[in-house]
Fold each of these.
Amino acid sequence: MRILGIDPGIGRMGWGVIEMQSATLRQSLGREFKVQSCGCFETEPNSPTPGRLLKIYRFISKLMDEYKPDALSIEELFFNTNAKTAFVVGQSRGVVLLAAEEHGLQIGIYTPLQVKIAMTGYGRAEKRQVGQMVKTLLRLSVVPKPDDTTDALAIALTHAFSAKILNLKR
């Protein structure tokens, strides 16, 4: 299974494509996953929102065409204080979900709490702890930068763990 993980944003959107190899529960989790590619897509600050959304849509569609993921895993919108930022991030998230639906992908949506629990077993884990687990599980030499990229890979891994559990229940 190939999973595209997305940490949504309008200015910076982290993304990562991982491949989950078929495995049994007895196998080490670190041997099951491989990073196909990852990065952070950025749009021009202070440029009109519709143009930024179009660039995000085209970029995501190109990623889906190139890597042909089976699933999209994206973080649920979370905001604490700035409603204006939440609305524009929600619009960015919407174009990503639209592209995933157009490409016929399975879609998994996870809260930051679910991602932290999946990565560390602790819902109040710090970004540093999540980054170290991403590095370990994907056998990377360093924690990916920027944090948006690390978060996208963590979101993809969260879906991989969920997909594995769902497949075992069948």
Amino acid sequence: MKKSAGLVLVAGSVLLLSGCGATGPDAPTRNIKQVSDGVEANSGSVAVRDIVIVAQPTGGAAIVGTFINEAATTDALTGITVNGVAATLSAPSFPLLQNKPVIFSGDTANATGSVATLSAAAGTRVPVVVTFKNAASVTLSAIVRAKADYFSGVGSGKLVTASPAPSASK
């Protein structure tokens, strides 16, 4: 009996001291949603992930982010507006096939987007409106980051593609 009471006391102490169970489902650490600088939203089955605006030395900005359609029905990304300025995109629209992401900027990018004029400083937030063929448009408040550190390579306007395999020499 003493042994069981001791085990219950130890288990209860561990839960209380670790915070597990002490604050329940509303614990601040359980409610963290944004895990990066990028903002996120959903429009129906289309997920908008990690949207960040990177200020360029020219006064414009590059768009960083990922768009994923989780439905079997194809949709399309048809436009992006940053701080009231329509973005120039690398295609007129981007088909959003099921679980085939459209990625703006980065090593696996398959799209680019930029605005010629940003009119916002790094560290501020700007409205970003994303429009789709079928899903409702999404408005986000995205942070503007400087073209430095992690974002130093963003904005070249070039898509990164895999290098061709070396040919075998005879």
